[in-house]
């Protein structure tokens, strides 16, 4: 198995990487037949070889891990064990499952550290297993991953050639306001986004200080989950929720939040807010759409006004550079960007630059702000 330090993708053109470095030559040597067997036996290298081998096999088996996770939720195992521990036969009877097959799933749950097996043979939840259904929106994301799995049936084609995807039909709102006038479509999107928005709101409010903000407008804010967190912490702040009419019509928000229907793709943004937030909005759209939106934000803000962006950004982590980047690619118009890429789009829209605000969980969201020149 490969021995070596983890590398990160950069923006260096491939044409500039023609001369192999010393590290490249070492890694080429490690890839020769027989070297890994030698490394696994050598007392100086066998610990590294084993660690890298296990990590590589986790990659190989990762798709099965996610399916086992989906099955633990879909069968109701996690829900059943949340009440009390249960044995194999008891679980099989209550779930109507074949005991032999269910035992394989339960053992998989133990290996994934979601379940534990007690000395009496009963299965119970671990700390991670107990937290799993409590994380807002996580169960909903796992439930609809079956759509993404089908899009990844041919991964080589998916990552190398444009193609129609089933996931793009799951989120038709990204193609324009007309695709989301159906209340059921709008509700499906807004419900899943709202369920998972609480964690993003917590991270954003912890990272960014709204001191001095008088009027905040959240564009593409869905059912107002982010603004509800804002007004709970900043009780005197005026807030406007701007989203598609079918979305804001279903929003149940307090009096401190004023819903206003419209499409940021087709309509100018309302003026009057000194801060405009885009929470998990940009990564749903192409560069052209994002640039047009940022330009509208710039036009709507007064001199000295602030733009706030919070969403998953490329940071070199598996959560952002693998999961979110792949997910947004499958959406058809989406794109997960680095903070530098978003900053460049802000500059093109008229902002002078951006400030990055540190979050405690960058795998959930990263936060940037920019100010309109006075």
Commentary on this structure:
- With 374 residues, the chain is an alpha/beta fold.
- It has two domains: 46-134, Orthogonal Bundle (Arc Repressor Mutant, subunit A); 138-371, Vaccinia Virus protein VP39 (Rossmann fold, 3-Layer(aba) Sandwich).
- It has helices at 22-30, 35-41, 46-74, 77-83, 88-95, 99-111, 127-131, 138-143, 145-151, 155-160, 166-170, 183-207, 225-233, 245-248, 287-300, 318-331, 339-348, and strands at 115-117, 123-125, 215-219, 238-243, 257-261, 275-279, 306-311, 355-357, 366-371.
- The strands form two sheets. A seven-stranded mixed beta sheet has the order 5-4-3-6-7-9-8, sandwiched between helices.
Short description:
With 374 residues, the chain is α/β, with parallel strands linked by helices.
Name the CATH superfamily assignment of the largest domain.
Answer: Vaccinia Virus protein VP39
Cα(first) to Cα(last) distance is: 57 Å
Mean pLDDT: 86
Quick one: biggest sheet? 7 strands, mixed
Structural class of the helix and strand makeup? alpha/beta
Secondary-structure element order, N to C:
HHHHHHEEHHHHHHEHEHEEHEHHEE
Q: What ranges have pLDDT less than 50 throughout 5 or more consecutive residues? A: 1-7, 174-180
The percent of residues in helical segments reads 40-55%
Q: What percent of residues are in strands?
A: 5-15%
Count of all domains: 2
Walk across the major sheet and give the strand order.
5-4-3-6-7-9-8
At the first level of CATH, the class of the largest domain is Alpha Beta
Rg from alpha-carbon coordinates: 24 Å
Q: Helix tally? A: 17
CATH architecture of the largest domain: 3-Layer(aba) Sandwich
Q: Could you tell me the CATH topology label of the largest domain.
A: Rossmann fold
* Strand runs, count: 9
What's the overall geometry? globular
């Amino acid at each position: 198995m490969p021995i070596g330090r983890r590398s990160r993708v950069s923006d260096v053109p491939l044409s500039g990487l023609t001369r192999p470095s010393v590290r490249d030559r070492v890694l080429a040597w490690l890839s020769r037949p027989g070297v890994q067997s030698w490394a696994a036996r050598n007392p100086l290298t066998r610990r590294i070889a084993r660690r890298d081998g296990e990590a590589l096999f986790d990659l190989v088996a990762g798709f099965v891990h996610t399916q086992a996770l989906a099955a633990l939720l879909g069968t109701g195992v996690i829900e059943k064990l949340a009440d009390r521990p249960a044995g194999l036969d008891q679980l099989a009877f209550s779930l109507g499952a074949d005991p032999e097959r269910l035992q394989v799933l339960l053992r998989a749950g133990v290996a994934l550290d979601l379940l534990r097996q007690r000395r009496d043979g009963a299965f119970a939840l671990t700390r991670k297993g107990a937290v799993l259904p409590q994380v807002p929106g996580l169960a909903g994301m796992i439930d609809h991953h079956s759509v993404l799995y089908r899009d990844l049936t041919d991964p080589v084609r998916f990552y190398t050639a444009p193609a129609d995807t089933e996931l793009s039909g799951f989120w038709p709102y990204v193609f324009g306001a007309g695709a989301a006038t159906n209340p059921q479509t709008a509700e499906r999107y807004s419900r899943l986004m709202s369920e998972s928005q609480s964690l993003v709101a917590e991270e954003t409010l912890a990272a960014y200080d709204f001191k001095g903000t008088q009027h905040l407008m959240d564009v593409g804010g869905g059912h107002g989950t982010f603004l509800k967190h804002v007004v709970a912490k900043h009780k005197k702040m005026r807030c406007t929720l701007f989203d598609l009419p079918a979305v804001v019509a279903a929003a149940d928000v307090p009096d401190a939040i004023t819903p206003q229907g419209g499409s940021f793709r087709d309509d100018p943004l309302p003026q009057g807010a000194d801060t405009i937030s885009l929470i998990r909005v940009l990564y749903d759209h192409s560069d052209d759409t994002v640039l047009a939106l940022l330009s509208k934000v710039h036009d709507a803000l007064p001199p000295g006004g602030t733009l706030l962006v919070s969403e998953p950004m490329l940071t070199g982590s598996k959560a952002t550079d693998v999961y979110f980047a792949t997910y947004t690619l499958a959406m058809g118009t989406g794109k997960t960007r680095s903070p530098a890429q978003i900053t460049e789009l802000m500059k093109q829209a008229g902002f002078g630059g951006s400030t990055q605000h540190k979050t405690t969980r960058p795998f959930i969201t990263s936060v940037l702000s920019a100010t309109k020149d006075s």
